[in-house]
């Protein structure tokens, strides 16, 4: 990309990003359903008696995360669980929209753009699922009554660090995917 094209590229990225991130409930609902489906495939059960459920909310950006233990019953016979919310818009939708904007605004062929979109989407989804795994570990590390796993103090610190600090790397991951996939001339190809 020549320097003369850089301002136009940035304008296209901004316009695409704004368009993709408008609060359109159809897109957010579709992403949330995708997110919940992939999460369910990755995180059905934990340590035998543990379970993870992903439940919908009226707000299409929110997914309820329920982590529990079927071996521990409450007085009403239900399993004991901890409930937390996941903002799927922030966790996965916005970084995906940024990656799509960066790739679509580029001057690559459509065949290359589609390949890069698919590869980038896969990488971002794997990163989002890694973040989800850390979130699940965090939930049952701070809710010891679930008796799913006994973490040592060092393990708890690592999980807490990951939970608190991985939030700031989503857009960087999207940008790195873009640089790696969409610009082969950077790598000398």
Strand order of the largest sheet: 1-2-3-4
Order of helices and strands: HHEEEEHHHH
Ranges with pLDDT <50 over ≥5 residues?
Answer: 185-189
Number of strands: 4
Largest sheet: 4 strands, antiparallel
Sheet-strand content, in percent, reads 15-25%
Q: What fraction, in percent, of the residue positions are helical? A: 55-70%
Query: Can you tell me the number of structural domains?
Result: 1
Radius of gyration: 20 Å
End-to-end separation in angstroms reads 14 Å
Per the principal axes of the C-alpha atoms, what is the gross shape? elongated
Task: Describe this structure as you would to a colleague.
- This protein has helices at 6-21, 25-42, 88-105, 110-142, 153-165, 170-182; strands spanning 45-46, 50-56, 62-73, 79-87.
- With 189 residues, it is of the alpha+beta class.
- The chain has one domain (25-181).
- Strand 3 and strand 4 form a beta hairpin.
- Helix 3 (88-105) packs antiparallel against helix 4 (110-142) and helix 4 (110-142) packs antiparallel against helix 6.
- The chain is elongated.
- The relative contact order is 0.14.
């Amino acid at each position: 990309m020549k320097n003369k094209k850089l301002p136009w590229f940035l304008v296209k990225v901004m316009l695409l990003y704004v368009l993709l991130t408008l609060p359109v409930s159809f897109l957010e609902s579709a992403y949330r359903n995708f997110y919940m489906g992939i999460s369910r495939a990755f995180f059905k059960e934990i340590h035998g008696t543990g379970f993870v459920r992903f439940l919908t909310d009226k707000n299409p950006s929110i997914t309820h995360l329920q982590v529990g233990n079927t071996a521990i019953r409450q007085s009403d016979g239900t399993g004991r669980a901890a409930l937390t919310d996941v903002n799927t818009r922030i966790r996965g939708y916005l970084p995906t929209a940024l990656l799509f904007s960066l790739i679509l605004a580029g001057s690559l062929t459509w065949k290359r753009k589609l390949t890069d979109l698919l590869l980038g989407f896969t990488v971002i989804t794997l990163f989002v699922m890694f973040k989800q795994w850390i979130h699940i570990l965090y939930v049952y590390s701070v809710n010891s009554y679930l008796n799913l796993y006994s973490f040592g103090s060092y393990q708890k610190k690592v999980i807490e660090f990951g939970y608190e600090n991985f939030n700031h790397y989503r857009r960087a991951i999207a940008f790195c995917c873009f640089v790696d996939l969409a610009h082969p001339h950077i790598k000398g190809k």
